[in-house]
Amino acid sequence: MPRKNKAPEYQKTTFYIPCISKKRYKNENEALKTAEIQILQNSGLELSAYKCDNCSFWHLTRSKR
Ligand SMILES: [Zn+2]
Global pTM? Predict the structure, then answer.
């Protein structure tokens, strides 16, 4: 009978992409277009676009003053 203990430590870090749940945009323009819409819908919201090193797509990030 095979014993199933808890997962080995290394599995926790296997190819973990921290941005997997974020929306990805293929270029800055697309990201900014979406940001513009979201800013219109939420006054006071500030978004900026950045290129991601993990997935090489663009993401939006909240920037509060
Ligand atoms: Zn990313």
Answer: 0.68
